[in-house]
Structure formats: structure tokens, C-alpha cells
Input
Amino acid sequence: MDDEAMQRQLRDLIDRAAISDLMDRYLLSLDEGVFDEEWARAFHTENVTAAMPIGTVHGRDALLARVRRGMALFDRTLHLGTNAVIEINGDQATARGAQLSTHVLADGSGSVFISAGQTDTELVRTADGWRVSSSSLRVTWTQGTPPQLPDELSPTTAS
Output
């Protein structure tokens, strides 16, 4: 292997590690529950598109508002991501994986709602590192009773 090939391979490994770390930190951040502008900038591009069970949003500010309102429905959560397959093409990448999310409802019932599904993520390299430019979570199964969604979180009213 020549030096150029080794440099490409090293860059690819560094990028994969950075993307994997970003995705892991994102899921951990959902459980920590601090959703502010710094949180949004740490993970997403300004013009991000995110398709979630509570609707599709466009733009970092809209995503931040939607995540704040959605996560307020839960007293506690635990998000696990696995099986990420990362493909890198220069300054763009895709990641596909599985997500298991456990939620304790904030309605005082103590009820647990579990969802699992597939995630598809598009990322771009920025001056601040890799950031999510598009994401989609397709829930494939659930267990328990989901929270009652307020009108503003209805998937058909997403901004």
C-alpha cells in the first residue's frame, strides 16, 4: 500500500469514528434533555430536514422547537442506536442503523412506551465537523401506549 492509499484509508477511519461519535452523542443528548441552540448547532446543519414520528420539519430552529415539545411528553428516556452502516463520499456521508427508544410518559401514569425502527441519516462535513443535514426515523414496531400528542405535535401540522 502506497502512502496516498494509506492516507485515504486513515482519513476514512477518522471520518467514520467522528460520524459514529456524533450519532452516539446525539442519542445520549436526547436522554440528557438539554435542548438549546448550542445543542442544535452541535448536531445539525442550519437547513436540516428531519422526518420523525411527530412530523417532518425543515430548518434547525424548527427541529429544535419540535424536539423540545416532543421530548417534554416524557419524564425519562433511553435511546439506543446500533448497526450503523456508514458510507463516506468526500465531504458527504450516509448512515443507516437501528434505534430502540424507551420512554416513561410524563403524564404521571408511569407508563412505558417503547419504539424501534430504522434510521437513515445524511451528513456533511462542515468547518465544525460532521453535521446531520437530513434524518429519518421509520418506526417499525411499538409496545405500550404512546403519549397523547397535543395538536401542535400532530405529524400533519409539522413546520
